[in-house]
Amino acid sequence: MKEMTVKIVGLTTTDEEQIKKITKEDYELNGGHSANICYTQKSYDEILAEPKEKTILRATGNKKNKHHSVFGHDNIELYFEGIPKIIAMLINNEKEYNTSEKSGRYTTMFGSEKENELYNKWKNIFIDEIKKEYPNEVYLTDKMITKKAMENSRYLLSVFMRTKMKYTTSFRQLNYLYDFTCKMIDEETNNPLKQELKPYLEEFRDTLLSTGFITDGIREYRNRSFSLIQDDNTFDDQFGRCYSVNYDSSFPALADLQRHRSLDYSLSLKEERDFYVPKIIRAKSDLVREWKEDLNSVSTFPQGLLVNVNETGKYEDFIMKMFERLCTAAQLEVCDITRETLDKYIKSLEISKLKSDKKILEEMKKYTIGARCTFPEFECPERCMFVRGITLRRKI
Question: 123 and which of 26, 28, 153, 210 could share a cystine (Cβ 3.0–4.6 Å)?
Fold first, then answer.
């Protein structure tokens, strides 16, 4: 057998003139060429030299017999402006993507006129409360305090708030997203969130069509649809080699959590309407009352609305999640959710009689001291030295 070799046969380009020349037929042809690798003794150069008509015929056959993986080699980079936050969350939950999205933690976010007014009001309140709680904390510079204040103020903005993002996915997956969108538009539902989402989905469907890369025949055929919003996603908590856990979460926390793509996430609406209250104001009943009144006044679905989240995955991937989320730099709500899940995991393993669970328990105990900088395998590149952050007792 020949020694291993490699040949670069495709590259993503950001050259605008090159982009103008690429059509969906080019991607269909590449799918046909890719399929031929499976069926022929020919070299790749010989495959590329075959008549175009033959390649298109094969690509059409692959669409018909639902062998769609051959259309997954070509990636498309999309830059969305004005995309609703909830739709960004929908497509970010489908795993086959890379995304760079405007951050609500590092930049000012904008909603309706009323939302903007309340956002700025609470941004100033949070700045004052942080300075009162941590008057001499070196880690909390003025810049960091403003960032933490913005992180909390965004809870007041609607989940339909417009944002911007770069989103890269395959030719195949882009067509699946289009199919998921059409299915959700056509779905008969009494779910209030799904109902309010429909006009935005219609806009998103038309936006995807405008790319010129939506093609007939590449549609999801395995009864899949958008996985994020469920009518009922509550299951009994289970912890072992694999786990499933339910907890309350705001939309920004879930948006952060779902970006850890080794785990599965879904949400459902709670029967009683309630909101996430930032820790920095929880001890002050007057501010808590005012916070909830303001959240209730802005929209039906503010980002601070609590929803039921189901998280499912393997214990190794949960450990990997802790390496990212148990940190002073992480969003506080996400950090708290992760630590609370760890505590549930440990308690469940401690009462289990399974030998394999005892092995997992010993592994999990390594991560119970504090933030990730206390983990035996982790070396922090930039230590914060914020004691209440390291011990997971911070309020901001």
Answer: 153
